[in-house]
Amino acid sequence: MTTHSQDGPSARADRQREADAFFHRELDPPAVVRVKAERAMHDAEADAFFAASWSTERLSRLLDEYGTPQVLLDAFSRDCERARIAHADATRGDVLAELAEGRRAARVRREALAERRRAETERVRAWAAANPERVRANRRRWADNNRERRKQINREYYQRNRDAILAKQRERNHVDPARRAEYNRRYAQAHPERKTAFNKAWRSDPENNKRHQEATKRWNDRERRRRELGMPARRIHKDPPETIRASQRDADAFFQRSWPAAEIRRIRREHGEPTPPDLLAAWKADCASARLRFRLADDPEFRERVEARQATRAHERLERERVEQEAARMDSIARAINDRLRGRPRRRSNAATVDRWTPTQPPLDPEPGGIGL
Questions:
Q1: Angle CA 348–349–350, to nearest 5
Q2: CA distances (Å), 198 to each of 201, 239, 308, 311, in order?
Q3: Closest CA to 372 of 329, 330, 336, 341
Q4: Where in the chain are the domains?
Q5: Diameter over CA atoms, the chain
Q6: Where is this region: Disordered (predicted)?
């Protein structure tokens, strides 16, 4: 391959003039026909070249003869990698700016969408507050036209929020039991056959009967115990819902209040001395007993350990009592034998005046009779 990298300006100018003359020459018709024929021939050769099937050996031979050397390919790869790194370094600031701008635009779109939704919600609420009759009519019409869909929505909502619904219902029944009793009375009047069937099914369950009998027995035992102690019968009355709610509000306000140090000092001055130590000790003992009872009822494993420890201590106490009783029995037998074999009455010594660590000398002549105990 001929290169012209070392040509001077005059040679390049000559080649440029030759190229201009070649491309701007006027061809006669026979020359045009000849050029077109040559071009068609070259196109046919190119099509045949590119349409031919190249075997692996032929491709390898062509690559070996005309292919780019591996050294140049490696250099080209390194240059491309350096160019990519340089381009990334040069455009990193622009890319980060574009990302930040995109995030800001997305945040603006989200805020605008949320604002539109809030505005639409406020508009709907204002319209509903201004047109309650139309709202109720629309809801009734939709419910009448979509009964199955409404039931499905209610079932799905109940399944998703079952625990919260039941907890709220229990709290409402606890706060206002009269409302629940009135609802039960009206339901029993409107559906007597359902009430009868439910009661029959409840009584037919052995577990329900067992729980009912146990509760009745506990009640009777407690009342009998109260009568034996001369106490009046236990009568519990429930406060009205207004009183319960007022007490709950007062309790929440009291326990949620933050007490400053000055207020605490004032209360202590008004109420005199602090709580006596004996009352505090009794309160701590009661708290410990309550915690123990709660843990025994809530933790089966702890209850088993406590029961095992109590059983071990009871066994050890019984064993000590048995050993003490056996020692007392053997001592009584020894004393009886000694008294029977003793010739003279037992001498009594004042234990208070005798020093147990002072050595004593045994008598020179043993007592006649007995074994000297």
A1: 125
A2: 5, 30, 44, 46
A3: 341
A4: 68-160, 239-271, 279-330
A5: 175
A6: 1-21, 336-373
